[in-house]
């Protein structure tokens, strides 16, 4: 009687009761591609990279051999941001921008490539007759003969061809323009470069001359208007003067000058009157002694009389001592002294009368001047009111005269500038015929093709990897199946000479470490009746690696003294008369001891696929699989199953359900991720999940 399904291991599995294995505690890596995996991607797709590089290099060589040689010539022009100052008020002002003139020179790059400059150069070199530029050579010539062309089309074609072969550049941090021409002839390239440089200078000179001529014409057109305005303003001033009887002399009104003169005279008269009045007052205050005044002291007559008086007084004194008071000489001298003193008194009286007369005359003159000033002031009030408007008219006249004078001077200056070349540029280096061709640079092209091909090949390799990703690292595999990678086995196809033993030792070490991790993570009750089992699966294309990993695990366990049963689900598959195997056991036709056998020279027992003669039911197969593992528990300590490609063989379902560990095998940088996902999905469909993975690095 078959036991119920509740007795099968997946229902009472130790994993359901025990905590998760230790290596489950590590969260799976989120990155799909690591930096170190790029080298493996490029190494695996090296043939694509080398093919792309070789193809691009070959195409470059063909291009370099078939392309006609081209020559480049350069003419240099220096541009001074500070213009040549011909006159003070130049039409082209000399100003330097804050950036030192860099912007100004940059704008000249476009000017040098303008149609005006290029057309000048084309005419100077008769370039429209050159077949390389006018479109009459090569394919353009045949098209022109077929459809016809006129001179206008030829000029346009020449201009377009010249523009394509022209390059105008400014060197860094300098104010120099490099005019570069590329042509099939070195002499023609130099000639065109020099012609364009000269055409640029001529264009600049003509532009400046035209600007000055236009400015002169514009100013001259305004001169007549300005002259009429001056005439109108002057007539307005003179008419206003005539209407208000305002006579001007030396730029001022006559009435104002007369009033000023009268004020001056009045001031002088007032001063004179004050002086004379002070003199008269002094004379009046002296009274009986007018001879003590300053006027008496300054009078020569009084001075002469005083001298005579002193002489007579001296004589009388001498006569009084010598002759006595009654001597005739004494009496005569005293009579002369009396007469002399009377003369002095009359002269002093005359001085007082003269002072009085001068004072009265000065006072009368002052009053007369005051009357005139008062009269002129009345008239001046009316004149001042009229002068307000006159001064306004005069200011208008002065303003329009100034503008007219400036216009006249500016017109003369700009007229002279039309005949003076004030261009601030000059040619500092004439173009010379090139000694070496500038295109194609074969060495540079090949160098660029090689590196460009490598870059393109790498890009295509990465794109191909993105479109069809493979297993690149343990972290990526771990993230894909959500289970740990127990180890990475080195491949057998790429051993270095003398290193075979080292590879074998490393393989055994990795397999042994994987077994230890499985044993450490497994939680089984002590009395569990089933033997521990490991099922190894892989995508179909990794059959050889899967078989190797399964057999390596079995050998590693046997090498450590454990009795191992190895079930190869693919052994005998496709044979006409296969030996009984695991399928026969799962159908209950043979016991385990009848189909197992030991490999020669090995402690590992082997079981093949067996005979697929009949289809067994799932429940029946699960029962016999359970019984098989229970029987194996008496003779073996570990069962390793090479489960093949699970997605292609449903007969493995009972073994998948009974296995303690399910390991997926994949090749680094070879197994597509979609195949890994398909295998993991097949395990899930069978009711289990992968518990780990083993990777094979064939490049190691």
Gross morphology: elongated
> Roughly what fraction of the amino acids lie in strands?
5-15%
Kindly provide the radius of gyration, computed on alpha-carbon positions and rounded to a whole number of angstroms: 66 Å
Mean pLDDT: 78
Uncertain residue ranges: 1-31, 493-499
Number of strands: 14
Question: What spatial order of strands do you see in the largest sheet?
Answer: 7-14-13-8-12-9-11-10
Largest sheet: 8 strands, mixed
Task: Supply the helix-strand structural class.
Answer: alpha/beta
Task: Please report the distance between the alpha carbons of the first and last residues.
Answer: 53 Å
**How many DSSP H or I helices?**
23
Q: Which range best describes the helical content: under 10%, 10-25%, 25-40%, 40-55%, 55-70% or over 70%?
A: 55-70%
Q: Explain this structure to me?
A:
59% of the residues lie in helices and 10% in strands. It is α/β, with parallel strands linked by helices and 700 residues long. The strands form three sheets. It has an eight-stranded mixed sheet, with helices on both faces. Helix 6 packs across helix 10, helix 10 crosses helix 14 and helix 13 runs antiparallel to helix 14. The chain is elongated, with a radius of gyration of 66 Å. The N terminus is likely disordered.
